[in-house]
């Protein structure tokens, strides 16, 4: 009988390399957006801010900071993320 080869034991199953670091990078970016949002509305605690305050912040990013639409979307996603 021919000898069957065993799968290479050095190959690991699971997440592709780099997936964990992408999630970590996104978390860090979301924290930074929350910090920028809080600084923009400095005297008010972030828990007391609502959708209108998010709109004002995104408007500030668009008109005064001239950020791209994708950057505004990232900020919006960071501020509306439910964790």
Record field, number of beta strands: 0
Share of residues in strands:
under 5%
Spans of at least 5 consecutive residues with low confidence: 8-12
Structural class: mainly alpha
- Ends apart, CA distance between termini: 57 Å
Instruction: Give the SSE order as H and E letters.
Output: HHH
- Count the helices. How many? 3
**Globular, elongated, flat, extended or rod-shaped: what is the shape?**
globular
The gyration radius over C-alpha positions equals: 22 Å
What's the mean pLDDT score? 81
Indicate the percent of residues in helices. 55-70%
Largest sheet: none
Task: Present the secondary structure layout.
Blueprint: H1 19-40, H2 51-63, H3 69-80
Helix pairs in contact: 1-3, 2-3
